[in-house]
Design goal:
The protein is mainly beta and 116 residues long. It contains no helices and eleven strands. The strands form two sheets. Strands 2, 4, 5, 6, 9, 10 and 11 form a seven-stranded mixed sheet that branches.
Amino acid sequence: QVQLVESGGGLVQPGGSLRLSCAASGSILSIKAMGWYRQTPGKQRELVATITSGFSANYAHSVRGRFTISRDNAKDTVYLQMNSLSPEDTAVYYCWVVDGVGRNYWGQGTQVTVSS
């Protein structure tokens, strides 16, 4: 059983910051990559940022320069530092993990709301 436990979502004013965390636990083989996706009602889930076990990061164009993804391999944890948040960043953010044999795992989602 694999669990991805997310934390750090919430309500923030435009221009503010939030930090999301996601810890993986359970029977998971070596993690190949971790990341974050987000989804708003009526839209497809979209990539926000991913990071490999070798710390190579990839960002959606819309968040580049504002969001920073990082990971702690010893703790199987991935973080997303989100700065200069705008209402367009409001979404449910999902943690994502892919293991060494290509199996994908998803967290339960955490709501991020950017509003004044």
